[in-house]
Amino acid sequence: MTTYETIIGLEVHTELQTDSKIFCSCSTRFGQQPNTQCCPVCLGLPGALPVLNRQVAELALRLCLATDCSITPVTRFDRKNYFYPDLPKAYQISQLHEPIGRNGQLCLKDFPERVVRIHEIHMEEDAGKLTHDPWSDQSLVDYNRCGVPLLEIVSEPDLRSAEEALDYLATLRKLLMFLGVSDCRMEQGSLRADVNVSVRKTGTQALGTRTEMKNMNSFKAIGRAIIHESQRQIDLLNEGGMILQETRRWDENKEMSFAMRSKENAQDYRYFPDPDLPPVKLDKAWIDRVRQNMPERPEQKQSRYQHEWRLSAYEAEQLTDEPFLASLLEQTIACGANPADVSSWILGEWLQACRSGNCDASDLSVQPESLAKLLEMIRNNVITRTTARSVFTYMLDHQIDPESYVREHGLAMVNDLDDLKQMVASVLEASEQSVKDYLAGKEKAKTYLIGQVMRKSRGKANPAHVNKLVEELLEQHRQP
Ligand SMILES: [Zn+2]
To answer: Which listed residue, of 143, 253, 297, 436, carries a Cα 20 to 30 Å from 365's Cα?
Structure first.
């Protein structure tokens, strides 16, 4: 039987984290009232002239440098002409001839042998947003997104499976977030991918005809669409059919893709250099400045956490999963907390609170300074971890100083041996069966008894003392 190889290339669009749009000073803030963030420039009114937002070029440069692209010394903008109601100018300002970066690369995390070549990175503007209202049978248009800066990152067809494609996307997404280029909120459309898929007989070199699925914004949908599309092409070829170069739409609910239109070529868009925008000279001084101000990349942070703070590889990886966690870790340590304590608290209690509250890590409002104080109290045996947990839960909803809170509510750890001894004695007296069990050799009974003492003290008893006292008093129960 003939076997096939799947070939995948991705064109990723990411919205940049700038305050204003690419060619005007309108705000880029998401979720505002429709058509409140536009001006003559982004609406394409006659006579309005675009001016490049310098920050867009700087963020693009950051990504180019981080992906080892060669930077185009003089980069230019071109007009891509087409009509669509979400594009009031009837052309999109993009880059065809001289994109800002070319010939880069990205290494995958789970497929270390696979280096994905980046064909080019270019800057462009986003279009508006159309919403079709099925009730009134009308289409509504919101121009707020018109002119929001985008980077398009075009890979070579170097990916060979859905898993590799998702690894590439996850790696790129993390890089974009840590570089401060984009917040990559897929649910808000700030990271979307066009997926090109073709198949060829295993062992052959020539690329097969490819199809494209546009504007996909969930990892799950992208993974499924790739698997489905490659199988559709293989089935078609096995039946003696032919693949047509076309754009297909993936329907996530039906788990099927549908032909939309035959694929257009660059010529169809009548690209030409935008006469309103001067070429942008990217001189060495500018590039050097961007290089010097490059934020630390996730893998650099990871290795620093391991070497400087002695965190395990697992911890370092988890803490660099998103910029918020890394910054929380760094800031809390900067407030004087012990790195191991902070790491264990973030990966334990902090993420647990997010899971129970069904929210993002960055939604919790506890400040690094307060977290540092709380952790120092555990370290200095002022409170137990159990107490710290309940103080932390309170801190999620209240702005408090944890130290005064502990003082005012009498939550300090009980260290007094006489008090603890009394507590242990009364627990043993009330738990005759467990004492017998322990004396009969059941070690578990001791754990239970310790738990009872901790409970009686409402989590405040010094656990080390309790442990020792329970052992001592149990021994006294043995028959001589
Ligand atoms: Zn505007």
So the answer is: 297
